[in-house]
Write a structure and sequence with these properties.
About 20% of the residues lie in helices and about 30% in strands. By secondary structure, it is α/β, with parallel strands linked by helices. The N terminus is likely disordered.
């Protein structure tokens, strides 16, 4: 906002001065303050919007002048001041000054959220909201909310609630105000009292909407003909898309007998394939056409399910170029029953996940992923799925590691919230067992679960292996892991529950086999075993329909085996990360027009962003995407001398390369890194700017093609 009052006073003062005295020396006057008058530590001062005029015999606009601090000066902690003076100087004129504000805001965060889902005309309540200091974790009070307690929520939609407190950056959470049609039970079924072993019958049930219109195509959690296995009062849930669900109760007493046959179920599982679509003999990766043929054979000859633990798409040229489409096509062809969402599914943003989910002929699962500040789960995600297989009703709950957002670029992950999954898994497991009559309940998480391979039990998940008071059966019968790329299997916990993870990159296929025995009217796990199969050795026959997908997307993929250059030596991951840093620095300094004529003196890259060792010899685009898969945009950081040293000596835990003698302007110089790093590295920079059209891969290709490596 322009400070018209300031301008008016200046003009008034000028008028008085000119009419009441003889001006012997002209002086400067600020006619318009700069657009920005409040700065944070680390921000550069800007004179944009500042208007200065000389007052003497005439009033003349001035364009050439100096300021203290100078334009572009970066404020430090020593500059914090409510009334920081800025001087405006020009030779031959009396100087003038004005005040700006320099602050050092602290960070706050939300420890617990209030209710975030409301119906139209509900009143807002902040009960349950707890805000803490990000560093000390001490509870904060005295903050204000942009929507106040008691405000009537009279508009539909999603709304941002800002939290403000003096001395802190503001934060926010979102609430949702919805008006959905409701389902209501108009008439209960004719029969609501049963004995264990009876078959449920919905005859006589009438469901209506708000306007008393009869609804026919609803879904019941226990369908007509399902055998009732549990004694007690059971809620039968009535659901229909775009309607609020309802329920009614039936009572089940002892006395009946369920005639059940013993059953077997096998589950096959892969996780963290990271786009490894093609067979790779050097790395003993089976390839999806070979894995697909193996799994399709198993599905045709066994009572089995096929599951994925996530991180399927990002990492190979065929999948990266098609943004995962080729993998979804292959998984549809194989007949996957469900997939758990991983962190790398987010690498291309939420919209890409939405696009891929629409193409999937299987559900995408995660029960503990919500939009930040809410408990609103994305509509493209399901907490669980139920699969009827060979006379068994199998419930599968998906979950994510608590805080999985730290493995996602912050600009994307800040939109989401990943709380501890345990209570969510427990609640859904009970619901699946008791309200949906599931015979077997499985949990699959994008979470390593075990701290390091076999060295310790997954203690935090041991509670899931205990018996639920509601069903007197374990919450879950099996647990699938992912994310840490370890091949592991065995049993753990109170009920010797089997667990499994199948490595990464299509190197292994996991299996979990259950033998279920009918006992006291329900199925109980008599025995279970888990293990992993070497996929490269076991999968030796190619599925032609899956391999043909490469030709389907040939125009998008290009020639993966085109040679970029010939590498003179083998590179370890760390060595190749160092070479990548060298390429990044060269690329920025060789293309000033792309980077606003900035010169960089240091480049950093995380070793985790380089995924493989690189052999000597022809370096192809296939190898490029395999070892550097993440399409990270380049970012230029403003760093102090101390931050430069911390980055260079490895304190920041990244590989670094420096070249030349840094030139410091206003106490900062330039370094280049990648978006994933700079968005989490407040300690190691004053500020940064991302260049989304310039990626690490482009920089490396240009460098290697230039011949500078030799």
């Amino acid at each position: 906002m322009k400070h018209s009052a300031f301008k008016f006073l200046g003009i008034l003062f000028t008028s008085i001065a000119l009419t009441s005295c003889n001006v012997t020396k002209p002086y400067l006057q600020v006619s318009e303050l700069p657009e920005k008058i409040t700065y944070e530590v680390g921000e550069p001062f800007s004179i944009k919007g500042l208007s200065v005029q000389a007052v003497g015999d005439d009033i003349v606009p001035i364009t050439s002048y100096k300021t203290i601090p100078s334009n572009g000066y970066t404020f430090t902690i020593d500059d914090v001041n409510e009334h920081y003076p800025v001087q405006v100087l020009k030779d031959g004129y009396k100087s003038v000054s004005f005040d700006i504000k320099v602050v050092n805001y602290q960070e706050m965060e939300i420890k617990s959220y209030p209710n975030t889902t409301y119906k139209l005309n509900d009143t807002f309540s902040s009960n349950g909201l707890e805000v803490v200091d990000s560093k000390t974790k001490q509870a904060l009070s005295g903050y204000t909310l942009s929507i106040k307690d008691g405000d009537v929520l009279d508009k539909l939609g999603t709304f941002i609630v800002d939290i403000s407190l003096e001395g802190y950056h503001s934060i926010n959470f979102t609430i949702k105000v919805a008006q959905m049609a409701s389902l209501k039970v108009k008439s209960l079924p004719t029969k609501v009292n049963y004995k264990v072993g009876d078959a449920f019958n919905e005859s006589g049930l009438v469901i209506v909407d708000n306007d008393n219109n009869e609804i026919e195509d609803y879904i019941l959690s226990i369908a007509t003909g399902d055998i009732l296995k549990y004694e007690g009062e059971i809620d039968i849930i009535v659901e229909k898309e775009n309607y609020e669900s309802t329920s009614f109760k039936i009572n089940v007493e002892k006395g009946g007998t369920v005639v059940l046959e013993d059953k077997n179920l096998n589950i096959y599982y892969i996780n963290d394939t990271h786009g490894c679509f093609q067979r790779d003999s050097d790395n003993h990766e089976a390839g999806m056409a070979y894995i697909g043929q193996y799994l399709k054979y198993k599905k045709s000859t066994e009572n089995c399910l096929v599951l994925s633990g996530g991180d399927m798409f990002q990492g190979g040229i065929e999948s990266n170029k098609t943004r995962g489409k080729i993998f979804v096509d292959a998984m549809n062809d194989i007949g996957f029953d469900a997939m758990v969402l991983g962190n790398h599914e987010f690498d291309w943003g939420e919209q890409t996940i939405i696009d891929r989910q629409k193409e999937m002929r299987f559900p995408l699962l995660s029960c503990n992923l919500f939009y930040a500040g809410t408990e609103n789960r994305p509509t493209w995600l399901e907490p669980y799925t139920i699969i009827n297989k060979g006379g068994l009703k199998v419930g599968i709950v998906g979950f994510a590691q608590q805080g999985l957002g730290s493995s996602i670029t912050r600009s994307i992950s800040s939109n989401f919230y990943f709380p501890n999954p345990i209570s969510y898994v427990q609640n859904y497991a009970e619901e699946l067992r008791f309200n949906y009559n599931c015979d077997l309940v499985i949990a699959a998480g994008h979470d390593g679960g075990f701290s390091s391979g076999y060295s310790s039990d997954a203690k935090e998940y041991e509670v899931l292996t205990t018996n639920s008071r509601k069903t007197n059966l374990p919450y879950i019968d099996g647990l699938f892991f992912a994310h840490d790329h370890v091949s592991k299997y065995g049993t753990f916990g109170y009920n010797n529950t089997p667990f499994l993870e199948s490595g990464c990159n299509g190197g292994y296929i996991g299996y979990m086999d259950f033998e279920l025995k009918a006992e006291n009217n329900i199925y109980k796990v008599k025995s279970a075993r888990s293990g992993t199969i070497n996929a490269y050795s076991a999968c030796t026959i190619e599925d032609k329909s899956i391999s043909a997908l490469v030709d389907k997307y040939r125009d998008v993929i290009g020639d993966p085996d085109e040679v970029i250059c010939t590498l003179p030596k083998n590179y370890t991951r760390d060595e190749f990360a160092y070479l990548t840093c060298k390429a990044m620095l060269w690329y920025v300094n060789s293309n000033p027009n792309y980077f606003e004529n900035q010169t960089v003196y240091l480049a950093t890259h995380n070793t985790g962003g380089v995924r493989d060792d690189v052999p000597a010899g022809p370096f192809t685009y296939r190898l490029l995407f395999k070892c550097l898969p993440f399409d990270n945009p380049l970012a230029i950081q403003k760093v102090t001398k101390n931050q430069f040293s911390l980055l260079l000596d490895g304190t920041a835990k990244n590989v670094a390369y420096a070249e030349g003698t840094p030139i410091y302007t206003n106490n900062v110089t330039n370094a280049v890194s990648i978006s994933y790093i700079v968005e989490y590295s407040d300690r190691y920079q004053q500020s940064y700017k991302e260049y989304f059209d310039q990626t690490t891969s482009v920089a490396l290709c240009e460098y290697l093609s230039s011949g500078l490596l030799y």
